[in-house]
Structure formats: structure tokens, C-alpha cells
Write a structure and sequence with these properties.
The complex is a heterodimer of chains A (204) and B (330). Chain A is an all-alpha fold. Chain A has one domain. Chain A is 79% helix and 0% strand. Chain A has 9 helices and no strands. The two termini of chain A are 27 Å apart. Chain B has 330 residues and is an alpha+beta fold. Chain B has one domain: Sulfite Oxidase, Chain A, domain 2 (Alpha-Beta Complex). In chain B, strand 8 and strand 9 form a beta hairpin. The chains are: A mainly alpha (204), B alpha+beta (330). The interface between A and B is large, with 41 and 52 residues. The complex binds protoporphyrin IX containing FE. Protoporphyrin IX containing FE (HEM) binds next to helix 2, helix 3, helix 5 and helix 8 of chain A.
């Protein structure tokens, strides 16, 4: 029993480090430590890696509820907000790489790109949908918003859908990967829908 | 190295002749090189990075040196990209979709023996061995800018033959208005062809006057060495004023035709990739601007540079397109 309790205590730091590792990896590659490298086109690599990490952590965040339900262990919920925040953090990095390194802070070009490229607009919409979630992720906001907090945080589903759409749209030829992400999201959504119809009225 | 060192006064010299081979290949660019900090770090973070980030810079094997390459006097450029930049970052979907896949997977392609089928509107058609095709021609080193449609670019010292010199030997007839080039089709050797990402085999084409233009090069080598497989060994096209996807790799068939060839990327997305695909900063790809390009092999802090009309070769090639609306024929 003690050992089990200890294991649950480790969950949060372990999850934190797991989400931190890709960032450390990118930093190491950026500084060309050892054999780590971003290759000959580092900005493109950073842009893609941060976009991918953001999407990955969004989906992992969405996976927490099913894991909780299936395992019957409420402790899983203790890492959900943190993982969502990591997803938001990687999305901010993604945007920062784009605006600072790719566009070199050329604001008129940024405006042009948002207007001209629907996939950028969709990415921006995804980020904007995540923004209120990050802003209300504190304990205080949770208590203040009560039931509405949960309702607000269902925004993670459209945000993820928009991110996948954004990904799908910028692929040159092979849409397999974005389709895999889309299927994962559909599965998660169906699971959620099933839960709700099984236990009507129960909100978690 | 059997070639004699020329004195700098002799005029045009290969970079390999003025520097040691090592420096030739690992020429540091003026902006921070990747190697600079490599020695500083190491250890744990680096191995972490290997998991999440493509270790794209694994040194690739050098192919054999080509003897008797003449440096072109006309096509010289500074700031040539490193061997590594050129051979570890490739779009060659036959070997995978990641830029680092071709360097990893192309080794299994068998490029010897190699033959090319010449068909269509020409008098001397047939199947020719690579040696037959190359034999009469002196090999020339030309340093060209290379501009990918994805808005990155590099500067590459190719070794090849003017395409026109080779094509003329097949005596194309007056109905030959276009030339079509086809890449090897063999899913056993080219794992990327097992999935229908494009309609295999890869096909590209040029109008006959484009193909006969002295800038168009049939390439067999890079940096004075035979082409590595990931760069399109043993025979590829380089059309420096067009986006890279026009420069078809590992060519097995050349067809002279009266009709405009149905080319792979154009078939896949005709609104994104035109038949002409001339480098043009004024005409965007629907999803990104073509006004600027990122020179690869530079620090992540290096700014993009302006893309030049016809990739800097406008003086030489713009007359091919006189009177054409380049927005329509992109
Ligand atoms: C203002 C917001 C955003 C902008 C301006 C933006 C911009 C971009 C750009 C320029 C690319 C690369 C396109 C290319 O290489 O041609 C990209 C790729 C991508 N973005 Fe975003 N993005 C935004 C928001 C997001 C968000 C919120 C997510 C995820 C939650 C995301 C996930 C991705 C993914 C997964 C890719 C593809 C990565 C790959 O191909 O490996 N983006 N984005």
C-alpha cells in the first residue's frame, strides 16, 4: 500500500519530466550538444517539432479521462491540467518560432500570411481556443467558475480538431499522419459520447 | 588524387584543388556552423535529443571521386553548401517523406549497371547504358543555386553535361516539342513507392527549347564525386531556374513527345505545382510565399534572403518565356 501511494506521488513529477524532455531535446539540438542537431534547416525543424509536440500533448491530455475511467484511479486527474498547459506552452513556442525565427518579426508579413493562408488562420484559431483554458487553469479560477469551468474546458476538443485540420492542410502529399491524429480524436470523442449516454447527467 | 594541383594563376580551379579534401567538404560557412558547439555539450541532453529530433547530420559516405572534371568558368558561386547539407537533406519521396529518409534508405538502390531507354519522337531511340550516354562528353563542374519549391535553397557544385549535348545525339525530330523524364520504378529498391503518395513512377518534363538551353544539366556527380544515391544517382537532371521538383532523379527513361507530359506534382496538385515551375518570387504557392527563401546550412538566427526571378538566371532564360503570362503558367 505504501509503495502504491509512493508511486502515485511520483506521477506528477514523472509526467512533468516527460513533457519537459522534448523541450530539453530541442534545446540540446539547438546548441548542437554531442551528436544532437536540428539538421541543415533548423528553423523548419523547430517549427515542425513544436507543432507536433503541442498536438501530441493535447491528445495525451484528452487521454487522461479515459485512462481514469478505465483504471478507476482518480489520481490520473492530478496531471491533466499540467499536461494541457504543456500543450499550450509548446503551441506558444511554435508561434514564437514562426513569428521570430521564420518571419523575423515582420508584422506586415504576419498579417498577410494570416489573411492569405487559411491553414495559418486555422492554427491561430486553435491557439485562441486554447488561450482561455490556459488563463483559467488555476485552482482559483476553477473554484470561481465551478460548473462553467468544465464547460469552458470542453474547448480543448475544438482546439485539437482545429490543430489537426491545420496540420492536415499544410501537408504536401502524404496525409496519413494527420489522418491518424484525426482518428485518435474521433475515438476519444466517441468514447466521451458513450460515457455520457451511459451515465447521463454525470459530469466530470 | 591523381589530378595535378594547378597554380591559382591558371584561372579556374576546383575548390578541391585549392584546399585539402577535408576542407573542401566541410567548408565552414561565414555564419555559425553546426559543428561549433558540438564539442561543448555532449552527454545526456544530446542523447535525449536524438529521440525527438532527427539526427539529420549523420555523416554520409563519400562516393568515389570522378577523374578529369573540368570546372566551368562561367558558373562559379561562393558560399557553396557543405557535402553534408547536400546529402542529408533531400526530397526524394521514393525513399521516404522525411528529408533525412533518402540518406538513410537510398543505399539499397542498385545504380550499376544502369541503362536509359530513349523513346518517342527521335531517330536514334533505344536502350543505352549509362556509359554509352556519358562516353563522348567531357564532365564539367558547375556551381548552381538550387531552390526548392518549399522555400529553402542551397548552392551546389554539380558535375554533369549540358543536357542539350546528350539530347542532340538522339536526333529528335520536328514533332519533338517536349521531353519527358521518368525515374526508376521499383518498390523493392524504393520503399517509398509502396505507398501511393504520388502516382509512381515520378515523371517530369520540359519544353524542348528549355531542355536544349545550355543551363540545363544532366548530372552525375556533386563536389567532384559520383552522385550519392539520395541525390538521384546515377543520372539526374538539374534545371537551375526551376523549382527543385523539376530536376528529376535516377532517370531511366527519356521520351521525346509532341504533347506536354503529365508530370507527377502537377498531377497531384495542379493548383500548387505548375508544369513550368519557374522560380518566381512574385507568384506564391497557395500555402506559402515564394518571395524569400531560407539558405540551409546556416544558424537558426540567419535571416531569409530574397528569392531571385528565375533563381538568378533571368538574363539567360527569360527569353524562353517572352510573351507568356508567368502568373498563369506558373
Ligand atoms: C497562430 C498560430 C499558428 C501558426 C502561425 C502556425 C504556423 C505553422 C506553420 C508555418 C507550420 C509549418 C508549415 C510548413 O512547414 O509548411 C505549422 C505546422 C504545424 N503546426 Fe502550426 N501554427 C499555429 C498554431 C498551431 C497550433 C495551436 C498547433 C497545435 C496545437 C499547431 C500544430 C502544428 C503541426 C502539428 C504542424 C505540422 C508539423 C509537422 O509537419 O511535423 N499549430 N504551423
Amino acid at each position: 500500500m505504501m509503495a502504491v501511494a509512493g508511486a502515485w506521488r511520483a506521477l506528477k513529477p514523472v509526467a512533468f519530466i516527460a513533457a519537459l524532455l522534448p523541450l530539453l531535446g530541442l534545446i540540446a539540438a539547438l546548441l548542437q550538444m554531442g551528436s544532437a542537431s536540428l539538421g541543415p534547416n533548423p528553423v523548419r525543424e523547430l517549427l515542425h517539432a513544436t507543432g507536433k509536440e503541442s498536438l501530441n500533448w493535447l491528445l495525451i491530455t484528452l487521454l487522461i479521462s479515459p485512462i481514469r475511467e478505465i483504471s478507476g484511479q482518480w489520481q490520473w486527474l492530478t496531471i491533466r491540467r499540467m499536461l494541457g498547459l504543456w500543450a499550450f506552452f509548446y503551441a506558444l513556442l511554435h508561434l514564437a518560432v514562426y513569428v521570430i525565427l521564420e518571419l523575423e518579426l515582420d508584422w506586415s508579413e504576419l498579417t498577410q500570411e494570416i489573411i492569405r493562408r487559411p491553414f495559418i488562420l486555422v492554427g491561430l484559431a486553435s491557439l485562441l481556443a486554447l488561450l482561455p483554458l490556459a488563463a483559467t487553469s488555476t485552482q482559483r479560477m476553477m473554484r470561481r467558475l465551478k460548473k462553467r469551468w468544465q464547460q469552458l474546458h470542453y474547448l480543448i476538443y475544438p482546439a485539437t480538431a482545429l490543430a489537426i485540420w491545420h496540420y492536415y492542410w499544410q501537408v504536401k502529399a502524404d496525409v496519413l499522419e494527420p489522418l491518424v491524429y484525426a482518428s485518435a480524436l474521433v475515438l476519444l470523442l466517441s468514447w466521451r459520447a458513450l460515457q455520457r449516454s451511459n451515465a447521463f447527467g454525470r459530469l466530470d | 588524387m591523381t589530378r595535378k594541383r594547378m597554380s591559382p594563376r591558371a584561372g579556374h580551379i576546383l575548390p578541391s584543388e585549392i584546399t585539402s579534401e577535408r576542407d573542401y567538404f566541410d567548408k565552414p560557412s561565414p555564419i555559425a556552423r553546426r559543428d561549433v558547439l558540438k564539442t561543448l555539450g555532449g552527454g545526456m541532453l544530446a542523447s535525449l535529443a536524438a529521440g525527438s529530433v532527427t539526427p539529420a547530420t549523420a555523416a554520409t559516405e563519400r562516393t568515389a571521386k570522378i577523374a578529369g572534371v573540368k570546372p566551368s568558368s562561367r558558373y562559379r558561386l561562393d558560399d557553396v553548401n557543405s557535402w553534408e547539407d547536400i546529402t542529408t537533406y533531400n526530397n526524394f519521396y521514393e525513399f521516404g517523406l522525411d528529408k533525412s529518409d533518402p540518406a538513410r534508405n537510398a543505399g539499397r538502390m542498385k545504380v550499376k549497371p544502369w541503362s536509359v531507354e530513349v523513346t518517342g519522337e527521335a531517330d536514334k531511340t533505344g536502350v543505352f547504358t549509362l556509359e554509352d550516354i556519358l562516353r563522348p562528353h567531357p564532365l564539367e563542374e558547375r556551381i548552381y543555386r538550387f531552390r526548392c519549391v518549399e522555400a529553402w535553397s542551397r548552392v551546389v557544385p554539380w558535375v554533369g553535361i549540358p543536357l542539350a549535348d546528350v539530347l542532340k545525339r538522339f536526333d529528335p525530330n520536328s514533332r519533338a516539342k517536349y521531353v519527358e523524364f521518368t525515374t526508376l520504378m521499383d518498390p523493392m529498391q524504393m520503399p517509398g513507392q509502396r505507398r501511393a503518395v504520388l502516382d509512381w513512377p515520378y515523371v517530369e518534363g520540359l519544353r524542348i527549347d528549355e531542355a536544349m538551353h545550355p543551363l540545363a544539366l544532366l548530372v552525375v556527380g556533386v563536389y567532384g564525386h559520383w552522385l550519392p544515391n539520395q541525390n538521384g544517382a546515377p543520372l539526374r537532371l538539374i534545371v537551375p531556374w526551376k523549382y527543385g521538383f523539376k530536376s528529376v532523379k535516377s532517370i531511366v527513361r527519356i521520351r521525346f513527345t509532341a504533347r506536354q507530359p503529365r508530370t507527377s506534382w502537377n498531377l497531384a496538385a495542379s493548383n500548387e505545382y505548375g508544369f513550368y515551375a519557374n522560380v518566381n518570387p512574385a507568384v506564391d504557392h497557395p500555402r506559402w510565399s515564394q518571395a524569400k527563401e531560407r539558405r540551409i546550412g546556416q544558424s537558426f538566427l540567419a535571416p531569409r534572403v530574397d528569392t531571385l526571378a528565375f533563381n538568378g538566371y533571368a538574363d539567360e532564360v527569360s527569353s524562353l518565356y517572352r510573351g507568356m503570362d508567368l502568373r498563369r503558367f506558373y
